[in-house]
Amino acid sequence: MYKHLLGFLFTFAAMFAVIPSHPNAESGFTNNEEVYKFLQGAFQAQVSLSEEERSLEEVNGLLAPYFLETPKKQFLDENLVSENGKYFIYGSDAAHFYIPFFTYSDDTKVVSDKDKIYVFEYFPENHEGPVGYESHYEGVLLEKDKGQMKVAQFLGDKIPENILEKAEKSKQQAEQTTFKAADEPVWINKPAYQISFLLDPFDAFLRSGSMLLTDNRQGVLGLFEHKELDNQLASN
């Protein structure tokens, strides 16, 4: 029983080991997806300024939930134009001070550092299309303002070295965890193992943990093909 209990605890420990780390809870974001959603909203607010003319008050109202004053001013000074008392932005393939075209995938890194969040991505060189570019990083820095995270700085390719190192270390740890998880034991696909879950799920789960404690897969398989299982099948 002690061996099974130990295996049970080991199984749960392995399950929690593969759960990815999250942004700092104090930031207001609980996972990367929430960070992505926020940045997509910020980008959409910028793009919407090219859809129709607005008053300056409306322009500031659209951007205020997403940007601190400095990056907001940089964006507007660079892109905003006025005509007949109304304001709008011309669309462009090479406009400055926009949220980068993140892929919002594993390539988009989210790194928490105290009360700040760095979001960045490495873009390989591309010389196709209207705008070509060399390989480079692009990123933004998020900081809290009156209890709410906002874009505090357009980083461009100036990502701090310690943040790059932290992201690389996190990537290596994730790859190691994925490699271990992908090494699925042979006994998982055995009929005897699967039937045991139908007959007694709790006992089978305990045994699964016990199996993870041994490197002898043939011995593990024998545990589930024991005569005890045959007796259970016969009684049902």
Automatic annotation (TrEMBL):
Residues 1-25 form the signal peptide. It holds the Pfam family DUF3993. InterPro entries: DUF3993. This is Uncharacterized protein DUF3993. It comes from Cytobacillus oceanisediminis. Keywords: Signal.
